[in-house]
Design brief:
One of its GO terms (molecular function) is methyltransferase activity. This is Methyltransferase domain-containing protein. It holds the Pfam family Methyltransf_23. The chain has 9 helices and 10 strands. By secondary structure, the chain is of the alpha/beta class. It has one domain: Vaccinia Virus protein VP39 (Rossmann fold). Strand 1 and strand 2 form a beta hairpin. The radius of gyration is 21 Å and the shape is globular.
Length: 354
């Protein structure tokens, strides 16, 4: 019998796993300037150059490997569903789906395979590192904060692991753009994971360096003006924009193979790789720009990450991170109770009679 989702049972016989994920970042999908592909090199990591502001997370092979592992964690923990990719009830025949912050593009490609008659767009600030996509999957380089120029209205707009991407005002701007570009009755869905490492059974010592990770990331995000608490704020932010039927599902993502249940064990193995590949990229920009009591050096970050990695490998630490999935619907025009003066221009035009 599977574990209670709120209590993950520990496996006394823990094994190690080190999955190998292939590297490949040269994309044949785009025809854009080589400077976008090269990106900005800083502290040995490559960052996007499309946006004119510093971006917290690098866009390089190691980061793309982390994205891939995180994608698989999400799939494993919803593997009891016929469709583990998303939970929004968009039916069997969607026409247009948008994946914001597509990263490596894997989610968009999987959805394109699932719905071969639909057009799936994956968008990010850096070219997704793939050499082939299904004919109905379009991977594009664009900035979600700029004007959206897609003509079609979407059935679903999906986002995942976007913490630290925007400040609160920008998040409202993104959610508003999503609302405006969904068809009436269309859905938004967002999955986020908390940076803090947690433990329920006191197996993690109080003086463990792992306990410093979350507070460090949250404090640096706050100092950078891009809070890393999106997991706890996205539900209310989405509701405030005007979405209805707001659903919320919480998860525990184990780190390591300590759980007894096979599903959690597999997810923990993948999430361990997610962390091993992702940690340096998650913290390098934040700590070298906003570390306390003063910005850290690159070498200080490298030493810190090495210590974190060493403790993550300890199988006696029964640790996890919280994750949350939120999905919500744009109301139909008949549900929107607004006066004409308060309605945006895009919403004032009456629907044509069909």
């Amino acid at each position: 019998m599977a574990d209670d989702p709120d209590t993950i049972t520990v496996d006394p016989d823990v094994y190690a796993r080190d999955p190998q994920i292939p590297d490949d970042w040269i994309s044949e999908t785009f025809s854009i300037g080589s400077s976008v592909y090269r990106g900005l090199m800083e502290n040995g990591r490559r960052y996007q150059t499309l946006s004119n502001k510093g971006y917290i997370i690098p866009s390089d092979e190691q980061m793309f490997d982390s994205y891939e592992a995180g994608h698989l964690v999400a799939l494993v923990l919803d593997s009891d569903r016929a469709n583990p990719l998303f939970q929004s009830p968009i039916g069997d025949n969607p026409k247009h789906v948008l994946d914001l912050g597509t990263g490596k593009g894997t989610w968009a490609i999987d959805v394109a395979d699932l719905f071969p008659e639909a057009t799936i767009r994956g968008v990010d600030l850096f070219p997704p590192p793939v050499t082939w996509t299904p004919p109905n999957c379009l991977l594009e380089v664009d900035n979600a904060l700029e004007e959206w120029t897609w003509r079609e209205q979407f059935d679903l707009v999906h986002m995942r692991i976007m913490i630290g991407s925007f400040d609160p005002k920008e998040w409202d701007q993104v959610y508003t753009r999503v609302y405006e570009n969904l068809r009436p009755g269309g859905w938004i869905e967002q999955l986020e994971a908390c940076p803090s490492i947690e433990c329920d059974d006191n197996s993690l010592p109080e003086d463990s360096i792992l306990r410093s990770w979350g507070p460090n990331m949250l404090a640096c995000g706050e100092a950078a003006g891009r809070k890393c608490d999106t997991l706890d704020t996205m539900s209310s932010a989405i509701r405030d924009i005007g979405f209805v039927e707001v659903h919320d599902k919480s998860y525990k993502w184990p780190i390591g193979t300590w759980p007894r249940d096979q599903k959690y064990k597999e997810a923990g193995s993948l999430n361990f790789q997610h962390w091993m590949d992702g940690m340096e990229g998650w913290c390098m920009w934040l700590l070298t720009k906003h570390g306390s009591p003063k910005p850290w050096t690159k070498n200080e970050v490298i030493v810190y990450v090495a210590k974190i990695r060493a403790e993550l490998k300890n199988p006696s630490y029964h640790i996890y991170q919280r994750a949350r999935r939120v999905w919500a619907r744009k109301p139909y025009h008949s549900e929107v109770m607004k006066t004409p003066d308060s309605m945006p221009d895009w919403e004032r035009t009456p629907e044509p009679d069909i």
